[in-house]
Amino acid sequence: MNSRMNRNMRNWLILGTLIVVAILAAFWAASTSWFPSYPWEPRMRPPYEIRGDIELFYTIKTVVSTINVTLSIFLLLIYISIYMKTRSEFTIGLMIFSAVFLLNALASNPLIIRAFGFFPAGLGPFAMLPDLFTFAALAVLLYLSFRY
Question: What is the mean pLDDT of residues 73-81?
Answer without folding.
Answer: 91
